[in-house]
Specification:
Shape: globular
Strand content: 25-35%
Structural class: mainly beta
Distance between the termini: 20 Å
Number of strands: 11
Order of helices and strands: HEEEEEEEEEEE
Strand order of the largest sheet: 1-2-3-4
Largest sheet: 4 strands, antiparallel
Helix content: 10-25%
Number of helices: 1
């Protein structure tokens, strides 16, 4: 692919290579990895997305988005029993489909809504946080628009453009 979509695809592949090229995930190690349940166990529904918080240099802070149970956060995934808390009461009842941090400023985050796996719970658009996920505002350009009822993935390209894989195809910020 060429053009902006090609740029976004290349960016995604580069990020995947960075992630899978580090630490224990290198080579065939992942195929032999032992897995351990980490939660959250205090919320129902499928986990639709996961994000390791780049604002935490220890890599212990994780966000998970549930397909019908909102956005949750733990500050120590390495704990024997990680404590998961809802990010806030409003997002607690939303279907979360996609979550991303801006690679140039990890305090900026985008959260796509809607159950990406089924038509169980409709989303209402894409939210933005400018404080590392503490507070979220619905982007007016996406609010209650059919194209954003299901947002599966969000990618930020090198040029700052934001791409969202949505119910009605790929959407691009302008």
């Amino acid at each position: 692919p060429s053009g902006k979509f090609g740029d976004a695809l290349e960016f995604t592949r580069r990020k995947q290579a960075e992630f899978y090229g580090k630490g224990e995930l290198r080579g065939s190690t992942l195929a032999n990895a032992k897995w351990k349940e980490r939660g959250p166990t205090n919320v129902g529904g499928r986990v639709g997305t996961i994000l390791v918080d780049k604002n935490d240099p220890t890599n212990k802070t994780l966000f998970v988005g549930h397909c019908s149970g909102g956005l949750w956060k733990t500050t120590d995934i390495t704990a024997t029993r990680p404590l998961w808390k809802p990010v806030n009461d409003y997002l607690q009842n939303l279907a979360v489909g996609g979550l991303v941090q801006d690679p140039t400023n990890p305090k900026i985050m985008y959260l796509g809504t809607g159950d990406p796996s089924a038509d169980d719970v409709r989303g209402i658009g894409i939210f933005k946080s400018t404080d590392g996920g503490e507070n979220w505002d619905l982007l007016p350009s996406t609010a209650n628009k059919p194209a954003f009822y299901k947002t599966r993935e969000i990618v930020i390209a090198n040029d700052g453009a934001i791409y969202a894989a949505c119910k009605l195809g790929v959407q691009k910020s302008t």
